[in-house]
């Protein structure tokens, strides 16, 4: 049987993006979009929209490749196995624990296996490695998997299992290999980084060890819950200029009553306290967040509390999600559902108010000089991010190596990004 042409399509979080890069490494696959024999959908179940996108991708592949095979792998397949949802457009479904065994999954579907593969024990997380995403300057490194928090709206505990943490030595080895492969920036990611508990050490220890790798220009951490912003971690970021002073700290709601209904495990004051601790140690730090609007029981007063917190913190980036009830979660059965039209209106209102606060943050950067990691060129314009994750465009006729850092003097704001000129 000749080697198949395999396409991998990714949906969902950075952990999924990491795992796709891992599967490509194991398959030595470049994921072509044309002429694929097998389409692997690394699919998400966190929202109904994520599932819908996976179904649309399956329909499109089936239409364009009537003789091709479709594999759904990951959280969506685990949700099907637990009878939380259905997916009838795949030839084979395999849960998250099959990702390190993707070659066997491909062999099985090509040999005629159909339906849902049984759950198997996970591989040791320390053995999982990614080659990074080709053509990018930023590589994700997943050091943690699973979650035990059981937020009332979330399926993570059902489809990802109990927390697992990559040993620091394995994380450092993988990071060093990514740097040697040409990635100047690494983002540490996981399902819940606040639950990163390696056999020896802490998240702060992992950060310090990775920052010591020769050739690494930047290290970021992906989304983290407030409890993960320990004083030790803040200190690790404050003491090294290669540690990026941007923290994506999930808020979800700015109202204590709704936070309790979500079972988030913190109050608004505790959230603000952690933001304050970062700002005290790193005054120039920026923050991103996720917010769910329209959670059951959210009234106008609770929503207004959320808007006020968003404006008070002054986030540099914000993702506003409309609550999506997920079968099998506690929140799906909560009373006082919010109408869809109200959810839509609140999401638009929150985004509008956030953009006003973002404008104030960007205004303060006019006239400053920032170091920009160059990621791409479009026409006469180069684009990249500052170390605190602000998007910058600048014009130059120079041939600038992608992945290099350039000093840019900020001159203007255009929509949600900054524009400037080289200042070297």
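^ structure tokens above, recovered residues below v
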């Amino acid at each position: 049987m000749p080697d198949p042409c395999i396409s991998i399509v990714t949906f969902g979080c950075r952990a999924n993006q990491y795992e796709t890069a891992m599967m490509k490494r194991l398959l030595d696959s470049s994921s072509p979009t044309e002429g694929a024999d097998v389409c692997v959908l690394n699919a998400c179940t966190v929202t109904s929209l994520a599932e819908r996108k996976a179904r649309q991708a399956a329909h499109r592949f089936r239409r364009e490749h009537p003789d091709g095979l479709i594999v759904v792998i990951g959280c969506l397949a685990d949700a099907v196995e637990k009878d939380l949802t259905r997916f009838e457009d795949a030839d084979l479904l395999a849960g998250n624990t099959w990702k390190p065994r993707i070659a066997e999954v491909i062999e099985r579907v090509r040999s005629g296996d159909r339906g849902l593969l049984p759950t198997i024990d996970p591989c040791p997380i320390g053995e999982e490695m990614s080659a990074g995403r080709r053509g990018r300057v930023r590589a994700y490194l997943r050091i943690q998997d699973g979650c035990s928090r059981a937020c009332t709206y979330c399926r993570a505990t059902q489809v990802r299992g109990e927390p697992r943490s990559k040993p620091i030595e394995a994380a450092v080895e993988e990071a060093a290999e990514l740097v040697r492969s040409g990635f100047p920036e690494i983002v540490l990611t996981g399902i819940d980084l606040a639950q990163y508990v390696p056999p020896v050490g802490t998240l702060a220890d992992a950060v310090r060890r990775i920052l010591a790798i020769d050739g690494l220009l930047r290290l970021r951490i992906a989304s983290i819950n407030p409890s993960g912003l320990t004083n030790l971690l803040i200190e690790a970021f404050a003491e090294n200029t290669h540690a990026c002073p941007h923290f994506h700290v999930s808020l979800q709601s700015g109202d204590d009553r709704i936070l309790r209904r979500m079972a988030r495990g913190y109050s608004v004051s505790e959230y603000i306290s952690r933001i304050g601790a970062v700002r005290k140690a790193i005054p120039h730090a920026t923050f991103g967040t996720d917010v769910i609007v329209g959670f059951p029981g959210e009234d106008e007063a609770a929503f207004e509390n959320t808007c006020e917190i968003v404006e008070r913190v002054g986030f540099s980036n914000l993702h506003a999600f409309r609550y999506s009830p997920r079968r099998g979660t506690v929140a799906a059965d909560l009373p006082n559902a919010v109408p869809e039209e109200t959810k839509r209106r609140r999401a638009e209102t929150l985004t509008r108010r956030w953009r006003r606060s973002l404008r104030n943050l960007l205004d303060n950067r006019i006239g400053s000089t920032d170091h920009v990691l160059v990621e791409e060129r479009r026409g006469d314009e180069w684009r990249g991010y500052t170390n605190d994750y602000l998007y910058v465009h600048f014009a130059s006729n120079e041939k600038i190596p992608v992945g290099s850092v350039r000093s840019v003097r900020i001159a203007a704001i255009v929509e949600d990004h900054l524009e400037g000129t080289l200042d070297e």
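The longest strand covers residues 369-378.
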